[in-house]
């Protein structure tokens, strides 16, 4: 007997405005059991807003939301929000057990907490499950925090899972494991899943149907993914079609301005204007990145180059040397939440030039950057908290486009950025490189590295550098082999 097909959540004619900005203007959306539903739309389309309305975080202006379930009660819903929401002072075990306690169990003892957390984490990350789960959440890396949140949601036994860009911080191997678990839950428990992502490859791997939000309305309503091509999806999102340009391979040979990165297992020569990709789980790349951004005094990597110290001693010194850094953790290490967009964009220039005022010229420059990155904001005087996730990310990238640099380090700069704007960011970074800035780029999205880089340094899951991949060996399988992760 086939499992019952239930309409678990039905959203009809949903309206929501923030001030004068109308975000949702009559949106329809349905979550059915036994299905993985991709929720798509450009940055600022209103995906997270709809999820926050469904889960009660914010209020709708108008419209109807109905919930139904096989056992008459409302379906239990678990959500992974786009921005991490662990309680920093509670332990990993407490953070996970919390939702179990909230769902009816009165007291959960520490032993039980650890058991619940262990079982939850074992679902997707046995290594993390084996760690001391009394560790505080604030001691986790962002990437581990993401896994804890996902594990927590998966372990609640919910009938509906709402996952708002859960894979944005995960490596290819972790994503693959997550997908296996999600598929199994749908098959065995007949749950309904909503999955938000800007990574087309993942969407195709995982999802059955897709809904696309455009201009606050439902442009595509639960269409089977097999009936849409990638370019139709991009078009329905209201984004310009992307031309598949053949990447011009550059052959940079000048030695002037080169930097030698000396590592524990070998040296890497990076030439001026070259784009060096870093592939693999964060453990390896983070050591090298820390060296470059001035937080890695004790890093096992060092620099050997004319006029450069072997280890920049502080972020300030790194900036003074002409090194820019876009942190992958926009939440705690990037966005200046208390300052308006304009100050966020001009922050690094101010540090470098020690200037603290905005005059007309700067304001125009900020406006220009905002337009180049299609940063969707009410005004440059708004606070970053009013921006969607992808637009906050663009803010961090904009910050370093406003000044000349010798070298720039990007940690997942396109995390959460929509497909159309990703191309714009690639273009801007390529231009920076062509103008002589050396680029070091870490990404967990291997396809992105293969598209953009001149050479790729791969790290295995233990954090060891496994060698440099030249362009003639660029392919997904080679990279998957070296990083020890599925392509
Ligand atoms: N608290 C708020 N105040 C003002 N505007 C807001 C607020 N929250 C969201 N917005 C605006 O609502 C719009 C939709 O944002 P939302 O976060 O839902 O987008 P999204 O589709 O999730 O985008 P992304 O892919 O970038 O995450 C954006 O233009 C955003 O600036
Ligand atoms: Mg969002």
Automatic annotation (TrEMBL):
Keyword field contains Nucleotide-binding: yes
Record carries keyword Repeat: yes
One MF term in the entry's GO annotations: ATP binding
Keywords linked to the UniProt accession: ATP-binding, Membrane, Nucleotide-binding, Repeat, Sugar transport, Transport
Signal peptide from the UniProt entry: none
SMART domains: AAA
Record-annotated ABC transporter domain positions: 9-240, 247-486
CDD domains (alphabetical): ABC_Carb_Monos_I, ABC_Carb_Monos_II
Alphabetical list of Gene3D superfamilies matching this protein: P-loop containing nucleotide triphosphate hydrolases
SUPFAM superfamilies according to UniProt: P-loop containing nucleoside triphosphate hydrolases
InterPro entries assigned: AAA+_ATPase, ABC_carbohydrate_import_ATPase, ABC_transporter-like_ATP-bd, ABC_transporter-like_CS, P-loop_NTPase
Family: Belongs to the ABC transporter superfamily.
Protein name: Sugar ABC transporter ATP-binding protein
